[in-house]
Specification:
With 779 residues, the protein is α+β, with helices and mostly antiparallel strands. The protein is built from 21 helices and 38 strands. It starts with a strand and ends in an 18-residue tail after the last strand. 61% of the residues are buried.
Length: 779
């Protein structure tokens, strides 16, 4: 199925009954298992393209360097509510919150070339003439031109069908992107080939520039060509370079042959790398590349076979699974060369180098999903992060291409790498990774390093907390931990806990004890007078409003939303706020639990925090942003695991199969991975460790095909026959036929399992409520 979009905003108004009864409640008899080889038919790439989900509908292969997609004028690329396309560009990241990428927007036109600003020559289109599927995108422009896109790992392939004319143009706009373009160079090499070099900077705030090189090869000669600089178009010119708008046009006679195909290769190394990638992956027809892209997605999606549930549920699930495999992205060329963070050229030996690290987001869900379903690639990704430290001197925080952006706060790289270690992905690199993590945990980058690392580490180590210093000037581009002292403290402490476990496993006992002690630093920002976490200023005094809903210093959240971000020691946190009863009362208030039981979908949409950037002044659950992703699973530690299922299933209703069907920014697959993991009933409740919390799946059966190099059994089957909105409570669980009473599994236990079977019913049971059933505290 190619998704043809016709009903704008269809997901905005969805009846609660349809959401629960259709998406979560349909029994297996109403929906057969997906047909073999047809799972990609369930993917709708338009989900999340409206209401700031910031996804893109264009063509990519799993983890590919190229994401060939239309740009409509939205700062991150495509917005479903807009109806003009400025160009089809090569680089996009799914769900980012700020503009980046959008390099080399290409647009077919007819007639004279007189405009060089893509906001002026943009082409109108209708969603009635637009379709997309994994690895493919097509649109009919109101100019009478049909555009089709597909991709391989390092190339984007385009096919344009023009009206019969002697002035069919393709515009290659090197000087305009979604980020800030620093300088560009365009060269027409011969009658079929155009080369560019694009140096850009950006993503939320200015960062160190990076350069991307492209080469575009057409399937037949141009009849004429030219370049532009600024507003001046020069027919016959072969080169344009410098700051400002630079681009090229090539022209074809389509009166007899109306179709033009071209392949554009990308490299972050040099022009030779782009040419080598073109030789390696180019030379194939559009249809051949599209079939290969579709096969790659079918193979990837086929590792998860979900049975039962409604069509809507399976579409949202497989669309989320698809988005979970869009990033990180290949950064090395076909010959293994890549540009490191020292801006030097290196060669990946024995692994593929990856880039684009939204770690504050992905360390909570997506990295764990990839470790489960794509461990070979996840290993290469972890090795790539270790290489960043070895080549630049420091580990990344939020890396784009070849540069650090320093966006977000805390220390997200630590749980990312300790998760890789705990999942067995760092064999041969354990000590190298540990040395990098220890340096990161105990020190700070020098002034001449682009990285900020743990910016408030000096105060944190000395006093046990990162101070909140309002208005402190930033010393480097990006976010500052001093602006977000209390949340940075919680993030540091979480990372210390995960590093302590790795240190202990590797025999570094003194380090393990020191980090375990620091993992308790969450207590240093707990204010007994309010019963909540609060900011502390440089003097140590509590700062900001006492009302936890109006608290200051929490990055994209409030004290209410951050109070559960202590996965390393939830029993300790529960004791701080007065024990399990007090914790459950607070959780019930946080989730509006009584209202949720009466109307889950309405509570999720109207009572919980909604709006992709609605972060502050709230005392309720925010299912659209990262700090709260683990929160529903807190009930596993307070003796009421059935409430985890209630909250999770309510949150799942926020995912629909319409353009508005993404809850918040997807952040490189973070929210999508939350949906996938929560839907199959296993979730990483201690990110950076190997603990998987259990809740009721929304499918009768899910068969996971797992890599035997990491999971010797080769697969895991999770069953919950009859699961629905009215029969969603776990009555009992069995692992390989044996009764299982705990609310969590470890990766080690998963490796030995063939089956995890749940019996479900209409009322909560005593399953998982024993004192030893909850995930244990670490350290």
């Amino acid at each position: 199925m190619r998704w043809t979009q016709r009903l704008r905003g269809a997901g905005t108004v969805v009846a609660a009954a349809a959401l629960l009864g259709g998406a979560l409640a349909a029994p297996a008899a109403q929906a057969a298992a997906p047909r073999a080889g047809q799972l990609a038919d369930l993917v709708n790439p338009f989900i999340g393209t409206e209401n700031e989900g910031n996804t893109y509908p264009g063509a990519a292969v799993p983890f590919g360097m190229v994401q060939f997609s239309p740009d409509t004028g939205h700062n991150t690329g495509y917005d479903y509510s807009q109806n003009h396309i400025r160009g089809f560009s090569l680089v996009h990241l799914s769900g980012v919150g700020c503009g980046l990428g959008g390099d080399l927007p290409v647009l077919p036109t007819t007639g004279d070339v007189s405009q060089t600003d893509y906001a002026k020559y943009q082409a109108e289109f209708s969603h009635d003439d637009e379709s997309a599927s994994p690895g493919s995108y097509q649109v009919g422009l109101k100019t009478g031109i049909e555009a089709e896109l597909t991709a391989s790992e390092r190339t984007g392939v385009q096919r344009y069908t023009f009206p019969a004319t002697d002035r069919a143009n393709v515009l290659l706009n090197a000087g305009q992107s979604l980020h800030r373009t620093v300088s560009t160079k365009v060269e027409i090499l011969d009658s079929r080939t155009v080369r560019t070099a694009i140096t850009g900077s950006g993503f939320c705030q200015a960062t160190k520039p990076y350069t991307v090189y492209t080469i575009t090869r057409f399937d037949r000669p141009f009849t004429t060509s030219g370049t532009w600089s600024g507003d001046t178009v020069t027919p016959g010119s072969k080169e344009s370079a410098g700051t400002g708008r630079n681009g090229a046009f090539v022209r074809f006679d389509t009166r007899k042959d109306r179709t033009v195909e071209a392949t554009t290769a990308l490299s972050y190394v040099d022009a030779g790398g782009a040419a080598a990638n073109l030789r390696s992956e180019g030379g194939r027809s559009f249809d051949t590349v599209r079939r290969a892209a579709q096969r790659s997605w079918e193979d990837r999606l086929g590792d998860v076979r979900a049975r039962g549930g409604s069509d809507t549920l399976r579409r949202t699930f497989y669309s989320s699974l698809y988005r979970s495999f869009l990033a990180p992205n290949i950064g090395s060329d076909a010959d293994g060369r890549y540009t490191g963070w020292d801006q030097r050229i290196h060669r990946a030996e024995g692994f593929t180098y990856y880039q684009n690290w939204s770690l504050w987001d992905t360390y909570r869900t997506q990295s764990q999903l990839l470790s489960l379903l794509a461990p070979h690639e996840a290993r290469d990704m972890a090795i790539s992060v270790v290489k960043i430290d070895e080549e630049s001197g420091w580990l990344p925080k939020w890396g784009y291409g070849t540069a650090e952006t320093n966006i977000m706060t805390g220390d997200p790289v630590t749980p990312f790498l300790t998760n890789a270690y705990q999942q067995g992905l760092l064999k041969g690199y354990e000590e190298r990774a540990y040395r990098a993590l220890k340096k990161n945990a105990d020190g700070m980058p020098p002034a001449d390093s682009p990285a900020v690392g743990r910016e408030a580490n000096r105060e944190y180590i000395a006093n046990g907390f990162a101070p909140y210093i309002k208005g402190r000037p930033h010393t480097k581009p990006g976010d500052s931990d001093y602006d977000h002292g209390p949340s940075a403290t919680l993030e540091y402490a979480l990372s210390d806990a995960m590093l302590a476990e790795m240190a202990r496993d590797l025999g570094h006992e003194a380090d393990a004890a020191r980090y375990a002690d620091r993992a308790q630093n969450y207590r240093e920002i707990f204010d007994p007078s309010t019963g909540f976490f609060r900011a502390r200023d440089a003097s140590g005094a509590f700062a900001g409003p006492e009302d936890p809903a109006k608290s200051e210093g929490f990055h994209e959240g409030t004290s209410w939303q951050y109070q559960w971000l202590v996965p390393q020691d939830l029993p300790g946190m529960v004791d701080l706020i007065g024990g399990k009863q007090a914790a459950n009362d607070r959780l019930d208030s946080f989730f509006a639990y009584e209202q949720l039981l009466k109307d889950p979908a309405k509570t999720a949409r109207d009572v919980w925090v909604n709006g992709p950037y609605d972060y502050y002044n709230a005392d309720k659950y925010n299912p659209q942003n990262e700090p709260d992703l683990i929160a529903p699973y807190t009930y596993l530690s307070t003796g009421q695991p059935w409430k985890t299922t209630d909250v999770v299933h309510a949150a799942l209703t926020l995912f629909t199969d319409a353009p508005t069907g993404m809850t918040g920014n997807d952040d490189l697959g973070t929210m999508s991975a939350w949906n996938v993991l929560s839907s199959i009933g296993i979730f990483p409740v201690q990110p950076g460790y190997d603990t998987w919390g259990l809740s009721t799946p929304v499918f009768d059966r899910v068969d996971l095909t797992l890599d035997r190099r990491y999971y010797p059994r080769g697969g895991l089957t999770i069953t919950a026959p009859g699961t629905s909105d009215t029969a969603r409570y776990i009555q009992s669980a069995r692992t390989d036929g044996a009764a299982y009473d705990r609310t969590y599994l470890t990766t080690e236990s998963l490796r030995g399992l063939r089956s995890l079977a749940f019996t479900v019913g209409g009322e909560p049971s005593g399953w998982g409520t024993a004192a030893d059933a909850a995930p244990p505290a670490l350290n």
